[in-house]
Amino acid sequence: MQEISKGANVSLTALSEDAGAVVVSLSWSSASGAGDADVSVLLVDANGKVRSEDDFYFYNNPAAADGSVQLLGKTPTGNGDEDRIGVDLTAVPEGVERIVVAASQYGGARFGDLDDLRMTVADRSGEPLVGFSIHDAGVETAFIFGELYRRGEEWKFRAVGQGYETGLAGLATDFGIAVNEEAEEAGEPGAAGDGADTDASAVVAMDKAPDAEPEPVAPAPIPASTPAPAPAEPVAVPAQTRGRGPRTTTTKKKVTLPRAAKSSLAENDSWRPARLFPVPTLKSDKEREVRATSVLLSVMAQVPEFGRRLTAAFGAPAGRMQTFTEVSLPHGDTPRRPDGVIRVERAGKLWTALLETKTNGNPLKPEQVQEYMDIAARRGYEAVITLSNDVALEGAPMVDVKIDGRRKHKVSLWHLSWAEVAHQAQMLIHHEGVGNAAHAWLLQELLEYLRHDQSGCHGFQNMGAAWVPVRKGIEDETLASDDPRAVEVVESWERLIRQVCLRLGGELGQKALPVQRVRRGSDQRARRAAAAERLCLDGRLTAELRIDGTSSVIAVTADLRTGKVRTCVDVPAPEGSYPLTTVKRLVRLLAEAPADLHVETLVEAGNGPRGTLERLRPEPGDLLPKGGAAPTGFRLSLIKGMGSTRGNAESGFIRSVDEAVSRFHQGVVAHLGPVEARAGRRG
After folding, report:
1. Vertex 487: Cα angle to 484 and 489 (nearest 5)
2. What b/e readout covers 379-413, taking b as 16+ CB neighbours within 10 angstroms?
3. What is the pTM assigned to this prediction?
4. Across the strands, what pairs with 600?
């Protein structure tokens, strides 16, 4: 991670190839443990002003409808907090030149009372790119930590470190948001004139309290399809004090669905709820493809947050979306019918993508995709999207197509997995929320459809034809080290791990990503060839995955010789703590963990004591190394039987790995709480 000083700037593109979306973190600490601040984000235009009040994001307006900004909430640290913000730079409207990241305090608190003020920016994979620490905070009650800004086609980060003694009101005024003067004259504590108590709800208010006097009305939100002009005057809105009077907000609360199902009125289990998208009548793969495409595209068009989430990564703008099926397009003597067409209108311009869908594990046909690429190039369309149960891998195209370099118009080819579709729907309806209850219900019906056995939309489900011969070759030690089938198994393993990450992330409401300990920009095919050679030698498939916002890295090892799956994580020992206190605390944290959990003490040299949690619970001191050596950490491992078949049945390898990771996270990692964990040795 690159450290920069106040006033310096750096290109995010130069630091990472995966900086199209970033996670910005603001952190601070307090000796008393009582310090706190509220994060806010402002999108400003070339004039340095917000285009409307909708460009101001805070705890009561935490997410942009187009997915460009999302406040992810606070995470407690040792003596303070870390507040995280997700920014999809590909979704930021064209009229926005800068993204200002700030924080404010209230109740007479000052930023000089806080320690370790810091801002970091990480890329899409979670790798920290740049950090900035603030050392000169004093009497300020609001602070601009830093900003992301455009320079041509790239985004840069600037370390600002500018404070305001006038609080959030003074900061907001600089960017075109003004506090109602009548509230200041009323002399209420915490009105804008007081500065220290003014919070985000005080600066921006949309809904009036009952029986209130008429208030100035902020300009209506600018439609996504219209260019965003700079406001002629600051947005005037009334002030209000934290905790005094009715709270007013700038946006309706996002709707999420409860996880617990309502009690059923059915007489018995044979009664099935009526579904918007029925599945049991589907009898052929063609019917499944037609139904799945129509269901998905209709929900994308009706739920803006969902449609935007799926298309933003493909270069689509934020705008009005329409979707189509059964479209006939000219192609030689015989017209072609892509499974679907997606169109997005933004500022009078159209973005168009053709969609080719496969279900039930059916492979994509290169010649069919090639035809759609040619049609899209001739008609000036922007993209072709393939959708199937398969999972795309970096550096490994789903289908090989030829691009005519003589054509000026370039068409992008993208791939989407049904597992990714289900993941995004789950994230919205259970964690992040959508605009209204009807949209949440639509997404729930889509998710129920995708999960049905007959839908054919279940994600990666087959380890491939090479799985059985490679597994048997390892068991009887006849597999040659250069067998090309081993590379196929390694690629299938990577697809499985990516899908496991999607499922785990959807359950937790946080991104879970595979960890690749290789140099950025390295040849992926060479890396997979090396992994295949190791598989032939030691019979093991290994992977690591990390949960966004935590230090927990789970190592997964599938040993094809022993038929076991091992999940593992390392927990560092707290510095300065007595060894006996440390081991007792660890055992207490794992009170609800499985009894067969293996615990090993890590020491500087050699091997430390080890045993199952069942044996160690009555005698935690058995984990202490002999000779008085201090433990450096602990390795926690669960081992379970591995499925042997290549599919997703109960006896299948895919399900056994998925269940192993799920059991390990729920039974072990989730109980560690604030204890930071790093990847265990994959052995």
Report:
1. 115
2. eebbbbbbbbbbbbbeeeebbebeeeeeeeeebeb
3. 0.64
4. 610, 635
